[in-house]
Amino acid sequence: MYMTVPETAVFLSMPEEQVNRYVLEGRIRAVHDGEQYLINTSQFESHFQQLEVAKLELEEWRATPIPDDIDIKDED
Questions:
Q1: How far is CA 8 from CA 1, 43, 56, 61, in A?
Q2: What's the pLDDT score for residue 72?
Q3: Residues whose CB is less than 8 angstroms from the CB of residue 47 and which lie 6 or more positions away in sequence, other chains included
Q4: Can you list the residues of the chain whose pLDDT is less than 70?
Q5: Nearest Cα to 39, choosing from 51, 22, 55?
Q6: Closest by alpha carbon to 43, among 32, 31, 54, 56?
Q7: In what residue span(s) does the Helix-turn-helix domain sit (predicted)?
Q8: Over the stretch 22-42, which tens digit does the pLDDT of each residue have?
Q9: In a 3-state reduction of DSSP, which class is residue 7?
Q10: Looking at beta carbons, which pairs linking 6-11 to residues 24 or more positions away fall under 8 Å?
């Protein structure tokens, strides 16, 4: 499915200017139909999958208790 730059900006929750910049830099692949850039949304699937994996790993890391420090000495 192809979307225009404004539609992609809404889809990615970022400003249109940033999407335009990414297209011109080649960070987002797009085709130019003579009037506007069209962006294939399938290129974002792996990005969103990686974000979900990162969120799960972060939650797992936050849920892991801090181990007792073996270097603590009882001075009593």
A1: 11, 12, 26, 32
A2: 67
A3: none
A4: 72-76
A5: 22
A6: 31
A7: 2-50
A8: 999 999 999 999 999 999 988
A9: helix
A10: 8/39, 8/41, 11/41, 11/44
What token pair was written down for 59?
């939650």
| Tokens 């007792």, residue located | 68
Spell out the domain ranges in the chain: 2-63
Q: Which two tokens stand for residue 39?
A: 């962006």
> What is the secondary structure of 20-72 as a DSSP string?
HHHHHHTSS-EEE-SSSEEEEGGGGHHHHHHHHHHHHHHHHHHHSPPPPPTT-
DSSP 14: S
pTM of structure: 0.64
- Conformation bin of residue 26: beta by default, left when phi > 0, alpha when psi is -120 to 50: left
